[in-house]
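User:
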Amino acid sequence: MNAKAPSRIYFPGDIPAHGRCELARAQSHHIARVLRLGVGDAIVLFDGAGGEYEAVIVRVKDALVTIDVGERRAVDRESPLAVTLAQGISGGERMDFTVQKAVELGVARIQPLETSRSVVRLSDARAAKRRAHWQSIAIAACEQSGRNRIPEVAPVVTLRDWLGASVPGHGELRILLAPDAERALGELPVPSGRVALIAGPEGGLTVEEREDVLRAGFVAARLGPRVLRTETAALAALAAMQTLWGDFRAVAPG
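Assistant: Predicted structure:
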């Protein structure tokens, strides 16, 4: 039977290689109370910038966990396909689910968008809180999935403002998910640069918003003959793109 892999913890500060450090209270609570780990148990720390460290718990006291840290290792588990997911904000737990699974599927950045048909309307204060919440979900998804780089969850903006500020990079492929599009996702050219993917909210985009998106250089693409829910569409597209162009693709034997 294979031994269980050590739990992974994101450490946002400086990690002292071959040194000792104390974890923050929230991280300590998670390790000691949720994971129920104790002295002598191994964990893995990662710094969010591509490095990870083997570590061992040496003390648990006053709700704080102290660890001994080993050598930094550069471990790259990122997809070769750099995708920005511009997601129309959805209600309830749908957006949480989309963020979590998009990170597991290798997305490089998430841009929450307010659109005309967004069910959720956020004030500036609430938008900042939701962004922090979604960023914490992205971190937890990295801890679970083995990623050592944290995808940014960008500040909430309107679709129009984002389109106005978004300048396509060299070779970037810009895709709008649309169930009535003439072309299927697999018919699009292989991207030579980054990919920007727009997925609308529960009610989809208005005609005017769709026209704005297409004028900004996006190409409409469908996933299949069925209309998918907003939390399904983006994830299905990410999985399909990883299969077609990213790290799920089959590699012919050399």
